[in-house]
Write a structure and sequence with these properties.
With about 70 residues, the protein is an alpha+beta fold. The protein is built from two helices and six strands. This is DUF7979 domain-containing protein.
Length: about 70
Amino acid sequence: MSQRITLEPVDEIPSDCRVCHYDELEEEAKAQVPLLIDTPAESEIDDADGSADAFEGCDLVKYTEYYAVLAD
C-alpha cells in the first residue's frame, strides 16, 4: 500500500507544531526528502519500506527551510 507524502514550504512556524530536523530522520526518510521537494507530483512513499512511518510524528521538517508534512 502506498501513502502519498508531500512536503510544502511554509512561511510561518506555529509554536505548537512538531518539528523534525532532517539530520534526526531515519535514513529511509532522509533519502526521500530531496525527492519530495524536487518532484512532489511524482513522489509516493511505500509504507512497506518504513519511509512513511518516519514522517508520522512530524508536522514540519527542517531541511533547507521548513516544510509542512502532508499525507494523503
